[in-house]
Specification:
It is a single chain. The protein is an alpha/beta fold and 325 residues long. It has 15 helices and 10 strands. The chain has helices at residues 3-17, 40-45, 56-64, 82-90, 118-121, 126-129, 141-154, 156-160, 179-191, 211-221, 259-262, 269-272, 279-283, 286-295, 310-323; strands at residues 30-34, 69-72, 97-101, 111-112, 133-134, 164-170, 196-199, 224-229, 249-254, 298-303. An 8-stranded parallel barrel has the order 1-2-3-6-7-8-9-10. A two-stranded antiparallel sheet has the order 4-5. Strand 7, helix 10 (211-221) and strand 8 (224-229) form a beta-alpha-beta unit. The chain is globular.
Length: 325
Amino acid sequence: MGLASLSGKLAKQLDLDQATTTGGRPVGNIYYGTSSWTDRTLLASKRFYPSSADSAADRLRFYAERFPLVEVDSTYYALPSERNAALWTERTPAHFVFNVKAFALFTGHATAVRSLPQEVKELLPAEAHEKARIYRKDLPPEGDDLVWSMFEAALRPLADAGKLGAVLFQFPHWFVRSRRSFDYLRELGERFPYRIAVEFRGGGWMEEGKRESTLAQLEELGMAYVVVDEPQGFGSSTPPVVSCTSPDLAFIRFHGHNADSWEKPGLTAAERFRYLYDEQELRAWIEPARELAQQASQLHILMNNCYEDYGVRNAAQIAAMLSGA
């Protein structure tokens, strides 16, 4: 191995070793982690998990020894199972918290028919079976109710164990700011028993002259606004407005600054968010993070730049900065 390669490898290891400065515990009331612990590129990089962590259980335990928070991304693509939620609870320390992404149908996205449980498929009208992907509007009322109840029930083990941080509703750019959209947010609050965090992708929600009323509405509904750091200048961009709308939870998600891939079609999530923050970029967020932490019982910081070991490295770095290490 050449000197440059060795130096780079050691630097990356030092980044990850910073996670041990907090012992994998929150920094005060600040929880930090990544938006996936099972991303294929992370596993393939072999720069985080040791070879001995060769099972799903071992990997989660290893991750939870270094970070107090993780986001479950798979629940966006398919309904979770109560069995998995129970296993996640068993495999993590008492202080560990999971944030769970809402199922695609709940946020206006389409989902693959093949990913639906058989009980839901049996309720679909004939024309829906002919489609590869469906939207919530394609479900009959009884199918819609079943999907909601299955999602809610599957998260119950996490909630009962005090390990469910929030359910993240990440809305697409076509979920535009309107009375109808506000009504849907209100519906979510009325029918959903868990803490809700809301992230917008454009849609006019945080434009000048509108952001104040958007934040006021979220505060009225008791929903946590998700502050984002992401590429700007796109229809799906949301400005990095630092605000807390819930006394229980403040939230920051880091998506990187890879403008070339932000709206490029055909990319995987790892490719889209392929960006490694440098120290100066992360340090610029330390004071805003501390301000948010003073306004809520918990602050969640999640790195969504889950390409190879980028997310875990940056999560470890920002935790060390927040702890003063």
